[in-house]
Amino acid sequence: MAHAHSVKRYKGLMDWLTTVDHKKIAVLYLLGGGLFFAIGGFEAILIRLQLIKPMNDMLEAQTFNELITMHGTTMIFLGVMPIVFALMNAIIPLQIGARDVAFPFLNSLGFWTFLFGGILLNLSWVMGGAPDAGWTAYTPLSSTMYSASHGVDFYTVGLQIAGLGTLIGGLNFLATIITMRAPGMSYMRMPMFTWASFVTSAMILFAFPAVTVGLVLLTFDRVLGANFFNVDGGGNPVLWQHIFWIFGHPEVYILILPAFGVISEVIPTFARKRLFGYSSMVFATILIAFLGFMVWAHHMFTTGLGPVANALFSISTMLIAVPTGIKIFNWLFTMWGGQVKFTAANLFAVGFIPTFTMGGVTGVMLASAPADFQFHDTYFVVAHFHYVIVGGMVFGLLSGLHYWWPKMFGRVLNETLGKWTFWTFAIGFHMTFFVQHFLGLMGMQRRVFTYLPNQGFDTMNLVSTVGAFLMGVGIIFFTINIIKSFMQPRGCANDPWEDGRTLEWTIPSPPPEYNFKQIPLVRGLDAYWKEKAAGNTEMTPAEPIGPIHMPSPTILPFVMSVGIFIAGLGLMFSGEEFSSSFMSFIFNNWIVCGLGLLITFGSMLMRSLFDDHGWHIEPEEFQEEGV
């Protein structure tokens, strides 16, 4: 095994392409997710501009269909999901007292497959038209009969590749949390963000295979002429809805549970109090995950499943309100009597509570099957899920980013700009989506690219569009804040909030490559807070100082992902579409597909043959490595 200086250390771009360090992969996820979030936000602005007035002709119907499909798909799969993984990568190993994740190579592979899947999906804009069947891609709308371009093929193949990255990430964090916790950290001493991420990872493990199977079947229908969803060939279009929503509803909780975890870290820190009802929070998280798999057909009340199925799914949906309610009351009780500081991070956390509650209340309304017959496919549903996903998920992520930014980058974000971000984003959010409840109740349908005047829709759509721009201004403030922070010198305090409770606040900001010189000994819940209360300034180490083993950087995850990307592209295009015989040969789908698979499997073989098993950092090199 090599010493630190005999290992090839890359610089610049090559460092980022080859890194297996979870902290750098967190930054990559943040950059990738931020890019796709910006693309999805731009698509949303275009949608709202089209709906700003009746009979607007800014966009054609086909372009509008492509925009709403890509906005939903990009935001759910490529925007917020990777930012969740950014926070998980940056924080979880630090919170559990680990030096790395369980599988650093897989961690890198997960990021690159996500990125290339997202790029493949967005290439559809310049390669013959984007998917246009809605983000749920319902059959038969997504069949070749109604969507003849390659748009939906980009959707099916791109999401399979990106979903592979998410599945790998979920497996990795399950293994990390189960096997790599510091001595003394039992399950009931884990921080709530770690718990939420643990349960989320388990959900990913069960939910993502379902959508992968569905996407494979839809690819077979479209590329190979199969009949899984084609009624003429004996297929069943409702089968797609079942497959999609068996994944799709747990996905909502896969997104929201990490946000719950963030809120459960931020509120106790800025209330200077222990989280109220820790045990009930843990069990509520597990119960939400369990019930999340039992409710998928509430998206399908109008498909004719019958009164028994509708009643069962209606009841199970309403039950989810119970563990969610437990969490909301616990957050409120945590603040009750606390010395609450309204930092930017805490403003987003506190703003999250009423906003998410409103989304939950409309969710219970939609859970009633007879009411859902009226609400279905109206803007009421649009308002509901944006209150849950944006009012919950995005508020939670912005809270977490403001809170952990100093730990990730060694620089504190500007509080004034952070508050401007909160107020513009929050006011803009409620302007955009609150009125959409009433638009829905008045009968405005989802997915319509224009509407007639004098139906009572005009003013509310104008307000909604103005609100969307205000949200955009909020994100611009946040971007300015990030740029401004990087103009400052690095190196804020270990615990810049002075009230940090968990292990990540015990080490330098940003953390050294090896995280902990010595793995800490955990004596209870809120381990760092407990040590501070006992008068200790540092954690008690659980091991003597010795050499630290680190994984080697490698380019193979990047190369494997390029191979999968090429194979996916080849699967979609066939030779006869090109007039030139040379182009036909180059783009013959099986040749390109085979080349991509050869690159991928060749990289796997190289990994197994030439893995150098990592390297050591010696104690005398600690200080140098940590700079």
Automatic annotation (TrEMBL):
It comes from the Bacteria. SUPFAM superfamilies: Cytochrome c oxidase subunit I-like. Its EC number is 7.1.1.9. Residues 10-523 form the Cytochrome oxidase subunit I profile domain. CDD domains: Ubiquinol_Oxidase_I. Keywords: Cell membrane, Copper, Electron transport, Heme, Iron, Membrane, Metal-binding, Respiratory chain, Translocase, Transmembrane, Transmembrane helix, Transport. It is an enzyme of class 7 (translocase). Pfam families: COX1 (PF00115). Gene3D superfamilies: 1.10.287.70, Cytochrome c oxidase-like, subunit I domain. The keyword Cytoplasm does not apply. It is a multi-pass membrane protein. Pathway: Energy metabolism; oxidative phosphorylation. InterPro entries: Cyt_c_oxase-like_su1_dom, Cyt_c_oxase-like_su1_sf, Cyt_C_Oxase_1, Cyt_c_Oxase_su1_BS, Cyt_c_oxidase_su1_bac. The chain crosses the membrane at residues 26-47, 67-92, 104-125, 154-180, 192-218, 238-263, 275-296, 308-333, 345-367, 379-405, 417-439, 459-480, 555-573, 585-606. It is found in: Cell membrane; Membrane. PANTHER family: CYTOCHROME C OXIDASE SUBUNIT 1 (PTHR10422). Cytochrome c oxidase is the component of the respiratory chain that catalyzes the reduction of oxygen to water. Subunits 1-3 form the functional core of the enzyme complex. CO I is the catalytic subunit of the enzyme. Electrons originating in cytochrome c are transferred via the copper A center of subunit 2 and heme A of subunit 1 to the bimetallic center formed by heme A3 and copper B. This is Cytochrome c oxidase subunit 1.
